[in-house]
Amino acid sequence: MEIYISIIGAIVAILVAIIGAVLANRNMLILQSRKLKEEHYIAYIEALHYLISNNNDEAIKQYVLMRDKLFLMASEEVIKELLQFEHNGVGKSQEVHDKYLTNLIKAIRVDLKLKNNQLPILYFKR
């Protein structure tokens, strides 16, 4: 009888260790993915800011590269808001531009699991 209790205890310990390792690995992958998304979003915002400040060929190339990289990492909602921003906000009045930019930033914040409570209309300063 004692041998059965020892075997069951060992099996339970092994199962707990395996489950713990799987859950820790899963959490690590989630955190790495979030960090990678965050880096891509920051690079995109930097490229967008640089494009607004310096509308030259180099700035356009950098923006397009960061935008295209973003398509690999961003959520579907962020991609939709990005396209809306480009089609409906760029080249329009400051008010319209800022509305679409704010929607894009809100979608990015949702994807990064940040809160948007009371977020005002956003704009870039030159």
| Distance between the ends | 78 Å
Number of helices: 4
Q: Which geometry do the CA atoms define?
A: elongated
Question: Mean pLDDT across all residues, rounded?
Answer: 88
Strand content: under 5%
Structural class: mainly alpha
Please estimate the helix content.
Answer: over 70%
Assembly type of the shown chains? single chain
- Give the biggest beta sheet: none
Number of strands: 0
Low-confidence stretches: none
- Output the radius of gyration: 23 Å
Order of helices and strands: HHHH
Highlighted features:
126 residues; single chain; 80% helix; 4 helices
Q: What report would you give on this structure?
A:
The chain is mainly alpha-helical. 80% of the residues lie in helices and 0% in strands. The protein is built from four helices and no strands. Helix 1 packs antiparallel against helix 2 and helix 3 runs antiparallel to helix 4. It is elongated. The chain starts with a helix and ends in a 15-residue tail after the last helix.
Write the layout of secondary structure elements.
Layout: H1 2-53, H2 57-73, H3 76-89, H4 94-111
Helix pairs in contact: 1-2, 3-4
